[in-house]
Amino acid sequence: MTSDAPAIPTADAARPLLQRPKEVADRVTWIGALDPALRNFDIILKTANGTTYNSYVVRGSAGVAVIDTVKQEFTEEFFAKLEEVVPYDEITTLVLNHLEPDHTGAVPEFLRRAPHVHIYVSPRGLQVLRALLKDEFERYEVTTVETGDTVSLGDRTLRFLTTPYVHWPDTQCTYLEEQNLLFTCDLLGCHYCDARLFNDKVGDFRFSFEYYFDHIMRPFKRYVTEALDLIEPLEIDMIAPGHGPVLRAHPREYITHYRRLITKRLASETGAEKTLLVFYVSAYGATAQMAEAITEGAAESDDVRVSLFDIQGGDVTPFIDLIEEADGLAIGTPTINGDAVRTVWDLLSSLVDIETKGKLGAAFGSYGWTGEAVGMVEARMQGLKMRVPEQGLRIKMHPTGDELEDCRDFGRRLAAHLAGRPVEREIDMSALLGR
Amino acid sequence: MAKAKLTFTDVALTVNVPAGTRIIEISEKIGSGITYGCREGECGTCITRIIEGQDNLSEPSALETRVLKDNLAGRNDRLACQCQVLGGTVKVKPG
């Protein structure tokens, strides 16, 4: 616990409550770990309130399941709770909803202690489990499960929902049918540590819930949508996530809130139009001239809405929301010291927080000597899983009248790609030798 | 050498390639949205939808078959880092 982080409850205050299992529903027991001192998660998240690693035991008349485990450093704490709830020989089932280390840190040791259990993972989870267990993998009984598959514990039934990419390829949810209880692992979770555990008992964690969504789930909105499509028809009395409070009071509200967070804002503003955002930085006005001409050319298309932004010296943060909902992105940068300019890199690096896959990307810029910035921006766009259908446009020094017309053509072609009516082209492979 | 036509529909471009060319050799150079992770057929990042010409591709190896299955790939999906265009016409888009 650091002295400058007086989260409530404090680590010391929470500690006495950490050592015991806690029943969250009839024959469903929380056996996770609290980590109130954590201040940074996965490098990308600040965790002013620490976090929890939630694991659960479900007891049926003919079997006992453990749902997920904890981060490796909390392994002993996990086993102490587990042993208080159930002897190893009674455990029949291990469900791994997500294989990231903060949920599977205790898995190797758990399997040494209970090697007879049957492990259930998603199909994509299998490859991570194989990597986690290395040579020991072949010793265990593992079954991959998909949406609709069930495992019976006697009078309790676990039903699986394949919900990939929320936020890893392997993620799934597990539904305890008889109690309308959904184990979601990272989905609908948050980093908030409070030993009172239930959402109607802990402190105000709303900020943490949204902050977690923004940094973990937002780049996967498309997949969150698919997950919610599966979850929303279920009767839900409780949501038991892998981090943060157990949502037993009005759990449906959290699902509804996620739906709100993934819905486009003011969607009717653009309607059926495709949107192209043109951003630029210009040292001597040449790249600005290019940007304006590209915008003019693209704007000739009635079904593409084009917007132009000079981002020199500005904060790029406000543009992230805009880019998230845009169909295309063209970035202009001069080449300075053999590189794109810092503001452009700031913008491009910020895009890690949103989904850019499949968007149209394009780069352009004026240069004095070498002009490699355009190619660098294109490479970054490809790294962001964007398609870059038009080779970047580079112009040495200020553009001539003809070159400005080339820029307008470039804009027209970008608009045509966005509108779904590009001019089909054919080339020989030899034309790619220089790329 | 036998030739083939490989079309990337997301960028509206057809490339005339020699038989035996892998999709990975072309897609990044022309800006297609097909993306790669390990580039060795293990991670499944480069799953690509074959729109036309499935029969004009090399047979999937045991590794590719397993990775496609593990990643819940569809019947017309292949790994762009693995499959080779053997001839005729093949049309693809990012999976």
Automatic annotation (TrEMBL), chain A:
Homology family: In the N-terminal section; belongs to the zinc metallo-hydrolase group 3 family.
Cofactor: FMN
Name under which the protein is recorded: Flavorubredoxin
Pfam families per UniProt: Flavodoxin_1 (PF00258), ODP (PF19583)
Matching SMART domains: Lactamase_B (SM00849)
Database matches in InterPro entries: Flavodoxin/NO_synth, Flavodoxin_CS, Flavoprotein-like_sf, Metallo-B-lactamas, ODP_dom, RibonucZ/Hydroxyglut_hydro, Rubredoxin-O_OxRdtase
Swiss-Prot/TrEMBL keywords: Flavoprotein, FMN
PANTHER family: ANAEROBIC NITRIC OXIDE REDUCTASE FLAVORUBREDOXIN
Claim: Flavoprotein is one of the keywords in the record: yes
Flavodoxin-like domain boundaries: 276-415
Keyword Repeat tagged: no
From TrEMBL, chain B:
CDD domains cross-referenced by the UniProt entry: fer2
Source organism of this protein record: Rhodovulum iodosum
Matching InterPro entries: 2Fe-2S_ferredoxin-like_sf, 2Fe-2S_ferredoxin-type, 2Fe2S_fd_BS, Beta-grasp_dom_sf
Occurrences of domain 2Fe-2S ferredoxin-type (ranges): 2-95
Pfam entry (one): Fer2
Official protein name in the record: Ferredoxin
